[in-house]
Design a protein that fits this description.
Layout: E1 2-3, H1 12-28, E2 33-34, E3 43-45
Antiparallel strand pairs: 1-3, 2-3
Length: 56
């Protein structure tokens, strides 16, 4: 899963702050996140293996 964000004022500082919040959420649940802190870089949750729900 990959996400790209931009702050309302489009400043790099605002965008990086939003990125840090986005990164914190999946990390808090134990998901691995790749992001180097660069506001121009996408945030990626990897590996994410989507599977169909089993109906039993």
């Amino acid at each position: 899963m990959t996400t790209i964000t931009k702050g309302d004022d489009c400043s790099p500082d605002t965008t990086a702050s939003i990125g840090r919040e986005i990164v914190a959420a999946p990390r808090a649940t134990g998901l691995p996140v790749e992001w180097n802190g660069d506001p121009r870089q996408a945030v990626t949750v990897v590996p994410l293996d989507w599977r169909e729900r089993l109906i039993g």
